[in-house]
Structures are given as C-alpha cells and as structure tokens.
Amino acid sequence: MSVKPRLTYLNGRGRMESIRWLLAAAGVEFDEVYLETKEQYDKLIKDGFLLFQQVPLVEIDGMKMVQTRAIMSYIAGKYNLHGKDLKERALIDMYVEGISDLMQMILMFPFSPPDAKEKNLESIKERATNRYFPVFEKILKQHGQDFLVGNKFSWADVQLMEAILAVEEKLPTVLSGFPQLQVFKTKMSNVPTIKKFLQPGSPRKPPPDAHYVETVLKVFKK
C-alpha cells in the first residue's frame, strides 16, 4: 500500500492550493499538517525539513520537496499531466508560468492595505481581461479542442481552471467576454476528479479571510 503524500502548510489556500488542485485532479488522496504557530515553522527549519526555509512542504515518494513549481512539476510528470513530449511540456510550462503570474496577484490580494484593495482588485481585473484570459480564449478557439495542449487533460488545464474560479470569486462576470473559456470551465467542472474537488467537504480551501491573514502573519513573522 502506497503512503499518501503529506502536505505541510497553513489551513488555507496560499501557495499550497495549486498543489492541492493538481493532486486532486490526478485522483491522489493526501494528508495535511497545518502550521498554526511560529514555533512549528521554526522547528521544521531547525530539523532540516525546509531546504530554503520556506513552505509549502510536500513529502512524497520518500522525498521532502519544497518550492511550489518543483513540487507541481514532479506531480504533473508522475501522473501523466505534463504532455507526451518535450514540445508539449514546453507549452504546458509556458501556460502555467503565465497563469502563475496572475495567481500571484490573487495570492497577495488579501494582504493589501484597506486603502489599496480597490486599486489592486482593478489591477487583477485589468490583467485577467486584457493580458491572460485573451491568450487562452485564442488558444482554445484556434485549435477547437477541449484542452489547452494536445487535446489531453494536463497541468495547464488544472491551473487555468483554478485561476478562473479564483478571479470569478472577486469578479463574477469576468468571463462574460470569453465564450471559449466559459465552455472550458463547464467541461473542466465535469471532469470527475475536478468535480469531486469542487464538492463541499473536499480538501479545497475557502477564500482567505481575516483569520487566515492573521495566522500567516503570525507564523511567518520575522
């Protein structure tokens, strides 16, 4: 019997949420350990668990992996979500990097000072509708296939679906000008593993609230 991957992070989205999405999309069950105090975090560093003194930490296949991108690349490769050849892998990596840039803005939004929230939300809207979503709308329209690369479910599809839902939480009508992305979202919602992850009671975390922000600041305070 194989050991489930073990994820160590806070009880919230942050940089771990994309990893949860990818494991769930691959149909992999996992266990989680939640950091709630600075002492827990400091102990991980002291015990040599965190190579660069940062979480996420994912224990998988006998490895203690850090660095979000490396973790996700390993999972995508292990579960055949990283393309059939180098060219497909390059496209998937390129799309994932682009989506990650948008996700970084969403990740930092809860930590915005109150007087900057409106401006930062406008920045997310502008980037999503003018820079990132048009790219994927065009890709899907040009090749007329269900998925972004090679007409096969991949890491890039998972990442895009996560980003779409994250932006929609803040801007519910953001897809109004993107018919291909609307169809993509519907199809992705019906992929069995994604559908399961979107159900109540799954490991998917809710949008960050004040308690989550407070916990992050407490655990990682200098």
Automatic annotation (TrEMBL):
EC number(s) from the headed UniProt entry: 2.5.1.18
Alphabetic keyword roster: Transferase
Pfam families in the cross-refs: GST_C_3, GST_N
Gene3D superfamilies: 1.20.1050.10, Glutaredoxin (3.40.30.10)
Leader sequence residues: none
Family: Belongs to the GST superfamily. Alpha family.
Protein's name according to its UniProt entry: glutathione transferase
Top-level taxon in the UniProt lineage: Eukaryota
BP terms from Gene Ontology: glutathione metabolic process
Transmembrane segments annotated in the record for this chain: none
GO molecular function, one term: glutathione transferase activity
InterPro entries assigned to the protein according to its UniProt record, in alphabetical order: Glutathione-S-Trfase_C-like (IPR010987), Glutathione-S-Trfase_C_sf (IPR036282), Glutathione_S-Trfase (IPR040079), Glutathione_S-Trfase_N (IPR004045), GST_alpha (IPR003080), GST_C (IPR004046), GST_superfamily (IPR050213), Thioredoxin-like_sf (IPR036249)
Domain GST N-terminal: from-to ranges: 3-83
Annotated SUPFAM superfamilies: GST C-terminal domain-like, Thioredoxin-like
Span of domain GST C-terminal: 85-209
Keyword Transferase on entry: yes
